[in-house]
Amino acid sequence: MLPLQRIREDPEGVKEGARLKGEPAPVDELLALDAQARALRTEIEQLTAEQRREGSSVKGAPTDGQRRRLATLKQRVHEGRARLDAFDARTTGLLMQIPNVAHPSVPVGPDASGNVVLRTWGEPRAAGFALQGHHEIGERLGIFDFERAAKISGARFAVLRGEGARLLRALEAFMIDTATLEHGYVEIAAPYLVRREAMEGAAQLPKFAEDAYRTDDDLFLIPTGEVPLTNLYRDEILDASQLPIAHAALTPCWRREAGAAGADTRGYVRLHQFDKVEMVRFTRPEESLAELELLTAHAEAVAQALGLHHRVLLMCTGDMGFAQWKKYDVEVWAPGAQRWLEVSSCSDFGDFQARRANIRFRPAAGERPQFVHTLNGSGLGVPRTFDAVLETYQQPDGSVLVPDALRTYMRGRHRITA
Q1: Residue 142 contacts residue 162 (beta carbons within 8 Å)
Q2: Could you tell me the pTM of the whole model?
Q3: pLDDT in tens, 378-418
Q4: Are 383 and 275 in contact (CB under 8 A)?
Q5: 174 CA to centre of own chain
Q6: In the chain, fewer beta carbons within 10 Å around the N or the C end?
Q7: How far apart are CA 390 and CA 406, in angstroms?
């Protein structure tokens, strides 16, 4: 969340930052509450001082009047502190509703039309035959079973069979190996259920409460591996020599909101449950933006190793999200569907998440702790990468070639056939 002092000093700038993101921001309500809380805090300090003076004036056994006076002051202090606690809780709640203000380098735009294509890699697949979408390819190969998935779990779930399940597992192993063995991330096997505080720390709550799957005892199925990874160092002060810290995890993800009705309702694109490799970095503030470039390069490297034509977008203010300070999207080309599929969002949150989760570092011995900067990005989202592989490597005879990078994980298998 944003520091309260920043909102006090620049309320109009914070309002404008929220407006550019298309997000509501209760700045005026927060400042009015803050003024009341500050006045009450002053009143409590005055009452406490008066209480001390009254107590020190008692010599020997207090008189009835002195006892009544001390009891009244004690009660007023107690009631004031209870009211102040309520003010503080409400203040925190309002702070959590105010979005992060975008970095000055982020382009201003209302929606996806304002995003900027920074670079592309590779060329679209050129084929001498009619390319099909992943759904048709998967049905022909017998590797998708959406009907039985719906029977088990409902819409927006998938069952993969045989070589499809094997290809999925190969992609996941390749992705986590790339992150850990090639790019230096420390692998984490994280819990899939997290506490409310962890969801708040990663800025998933309260903004995305309706999208989350929650248990009766107030645990949440993770919507992304970012949640447990970001909260690993919650309420800790890290040593500067530890930074940057880089972790990666392969996890399932659960999201109730799986997009509006349309093309993505069919096939293996937008699901309530899917797998993803998540990369999270903790860094010094002055190294934050450079770390974002590195993180994005790590996501791109996975697409490049798979031979997937892709592009990198700099996201504009209206399409970058509630908590992000700056964000890049990596999109791969699906030649059968003739569309771009987002497989990674690489985000720099500044200290927005770290303030929520209270993650700090000490620059040097004896120096005051500062909040770290947190970053995360997918390396990559598995279903859409899976789809792009099927569409990119489909062959005229209906088979699909296995990318070179995955053949070791497929026990040398070069081709998937019906």
Answers
A1: yes
A2: 0.92
A3: 999 999 999 999 999 999 999 999 999 999 999 989 999 98
A4: yes
A5: 23
A6: C
A7: 13
